[in-house]
Structures
1.
Amino acid sequence: MNEAPLLYNVVDHTATLTINRPEKRNALSAETISQLVARLDQAAADDDVRVVLITGAGEKAFCAGADLGGGVGGKGTAEYATLLKRLAAFPKPTMARVNGYCLAGGMGIMLACDLVIAREDAQFGTPEVNVGLWPMMIGALIYRNMLPKQAAEMVFLGQRFGADEAYRMGFVTRVVETAVFDQTIHDITHQLAAKSPIGMKIGKEAFYAMVGMPFAEAVDYLSGKLAEVAATEDAAAGVAAFMEKREPVFKGK
């Protein structure tokens, strides 16, 4: 097995970042966090990349949180904050492929992604309270993705729960049977990669920026964003393809 703590490859416009510490349930070391930030920056700058997929190596875990014996703290804590901010503001669609345990800091990474596809046996939770800690930084994402009382129960009790419950709580996009899990991931990434990169960038920015705006302000803001996206070459190409009943070819301009 490759010993690198993070694997990175690009296939069909999708950059896959795989946390590669399966013997530790893909727990985050300081080095792993640093490499995640660097690879996200690389994917953002690569015009061939239209989608970012984050997952964990092996079959047991997406990410079990911080490696408490792996030096996370100090610089690692600052880097983790940088990682969450990079993901939250990433200009391309991001998706978490949750293939097992997704706990603590792993939940932070998952919640910072746009879409979350969970295998049917995935397990979620914030167990920090059980060892005298608290899910501090990921709280900024928890309370943006969950209802307050549900979030409080999860954080205060530190218990694990399954994928169906996570879906009911609203922070998992889709729960998928194991037999069709990888095919579903493949299908969704291909659908995302087929969209206009510039349209997706402008639209994603608007989608999150309008949250919390007063209604009138949001409508005015979105009106400006509509004009911006409508002026792109991709929009013209997409409309022409629709009228001619063919698939569009987007160039990201």
Note: The radius of gyration is 19 Å.
2.
Amino acid sequence: MAAVSTLCATALLTVSHAATSLSAMIQEAFPDLAPTLDERFSTFPSTRYQGSKRKLLSFLHAACREYHFDDVLDLYSGTSSVSLMFRSMGKSVTANDYLLYNWTTAKVLLTSTNIWLNSLDLPLIIERALAPNAQASTLVRDNFSGIYFLDRENEEIDWFCANLKSFSPSESDLLTYLMGQAMLMKRPYNLFHRANLEMRTKDVPRSFGNAKTWETSFQRHMMGLASKLKSCRFEGPHGKATCLNAGNLSEFDVNPDFVYLDPPYLNRRNVPVDYSTFYHFLDGLVRYDLFASGNEKYPHKPINLMPSRWKTAEGGLAEIQAVLERWPTATVAISYRGDGKPTVEDLKDAFRSSGYDVTEHTAVEYKYALSKQFDATEELIIGIPERIK
């Protein structure tokens, strides 16, 4: 039976690669029939995750395609939208993020194929994943009542985590990805940085938020998300995902010729963007025991706060410098907010002092989610080591 399963998996992979090659041949022979980049990227999964570069993929693609490279490291992969873009370009991609949920997202987006997704009975799988489970533990229900979700929703999260054990690793990753996105949709501001469930439950006139989205079930959200995921065109070779802290670059066993960085930053008020504070709760879907480790010091009881050099401008610059030293022959591209700290000029100076030629690209008319600042540009700074030219 195992041999038959292996044979079937090999056949599916061969067919998938053949379909991808055929698609590429058709697009080359009949360019007028090929979708535009904007059309192609519009099928990529949408997300409520702050800082996603999905809307900037055409801009990033246009800038990056001018350089010759084969192996990409996306060091702070986040939503993995950019990793998926590099995969669609035919690159060998390694996506890394220090958060467990983001690591899982990368595994899904860098290994999924349309043939595999279409082979799944997703309505049945999602229903099974959320089914009541009398054997489930009650960590979420017991520890997070009144903080993020209603009690019945906390119980569903407990059931979901228990039920994941009955699925294959790839199915479990897919379900975790869908559940995490559904949880984001049901959260005010799509974040887990505050204990603010009352924003949903208060019977008051609302000028913010979408009550209908908040009250839609996990199952219905997951079904909608799964349908959109199936419409994405998964092209290019399978990539790999790692879950390492960029503060420890010696742990990375990769040798990329292109490193893409979409790091955090300090805003105009010198407040750091801390993604582990925003999204810690999603990591419990990957490691259920984390739900027992909520930090009682804070009302929102964060379960997985991670260290980062990007708590200060000096620390962020030090991490950029460490990247340049770790992969001295790689082209390095940094996506960055124009008004962030360290400043764009600080980053360009770091490149130049390490012997890099620097090019800067600006995305115009781009507004950050939840931001009232319309003059904050998105910059892409690309450095090429002079020593390899």
Note: Residues 114-233+275-303 form one domain.
